[in-house]
Design a protein that fits this description.
about 270 residues; alpha/beta; Nucleotidyltransferase, domain 5; six-stranded mixed sheet; two-stranded antiparallel sheet; 8 strands; globular; binds zinc ion
């Protein structure tokens, strides 16, 4: 079974931000423990006496307003975020990152969370289908932070059976999405950092964090399937997702992932 841990970054309602990102990591069930151990080791460098009390939450670390990040210098705090992401970079080859960045002004009539969730589910499904084609018949499950303040995400998880059937992705799913406490799950904390890395890239043109994990996004045949930049209007976007998509279109070997209607695609 493949577990896809997901978290959001940015807010659908905040008009000061152009982007909403949903992102995370798919790991094989037997690999989850390695991630927990590595992130526990990193937590020990923050608080050796009580590492389990250290919760990695990227935006909190970045802003340094609360303990234990409050007394860190900016490079120290940013080093922690990079350290969390580095665990993914040096992890298993089969551990794959996924993220969808929605440029909110491009879709004024759509709920960005809904758009991102549908897109990510389709990409995860495509990933499982590709494994299946090689004889690795695995099912998948989505695991979300229970404190996800986005009510849309909670509603979509509740209606997952209906939505999943409509999107044609239900065959590969073992269960409806599960919600876990991020404080108790290092992998949800890693998902938070992946979403944050992608958010910083698109919302603030800060590539520092995404650069660490860029090679970990699900890809095959030279196409980065795991990262989507959904925007309308910028035909020359030079981000790795748009570049990869344009290169594949030039070769004529890109198929629109299932579940994404043509009107949602960049022209
Ligand atoms: Zn782009």
């Amino acid at each position: 079974m493949y577990l896809l841990y997901l978290d959001d970054s940015g807010s659908a309602a905040n008009a000061n931000e152009d982007y909403l990102v949903l992102g995370g990591v798919a790991v094989y069930e037997a690999q989850a423990n390695w991630f927990t151990q590595e992130l526990d080791k990193l937590a020990e460098t923050v608080d050796a006496a009580n590492p389990h009390a250290v919760e990695f939450h990227a935006s909190e670390i970045f802003s340094r307003r609360v303990e234990p990040w409050k007394h860190m210098t900016r490079p120290e705090a940013q080093g922690i975020i990079l350290g969390v992401l580095d665990v993914l970079r040096r992890s298993y080859q089969s551990a794959a990152a996924f993220a969808c960045a929605i440029h909110k002004p491009s879709y004024p009539n759509r709920d960005p969370v809904e758009l991102a969730f549908e897109d990510l589910c389709s990409r995860f499904d495509m990933y499982l289908n590709r494994l299946r084609a090689t004889g690795d018949r695995q099912r998948g499950i989505l695991i979300l932070d229970e404190s996800a303040h986005e009510t849309t995400l909670q509603r979509m998880a509740r209606e997952f059976r209906t939505l999943g059937t409509r999107w044609g992705i239900i065959r590969n799913m073992a269960e409806t999405p599960l919600f876990v406490n991020s404080g108790a799950s290092r992998l949800v904390q890693l998902a938070d950092h992946i979403a944050y890395a992608v958010f910083r890239r698109y919302n603030a043109c800060d590539t520092k964090y995404l650069d660490v994990i860029a090679s970990k996004f699900d890809s095959a045949d030279g196409i980065i399937h795991g990262l989507a930049h959904k925007q309308v209007g910028n035909l020359e976007c030079m981000c790795i997702a748009c570049l990869s998509r344009r290169a594949a279109q030039g070769r004529g070997d890109l198929r629109t992932p299932p579940g994404i209607s043509p009107q949602d695609e960049s022209p």
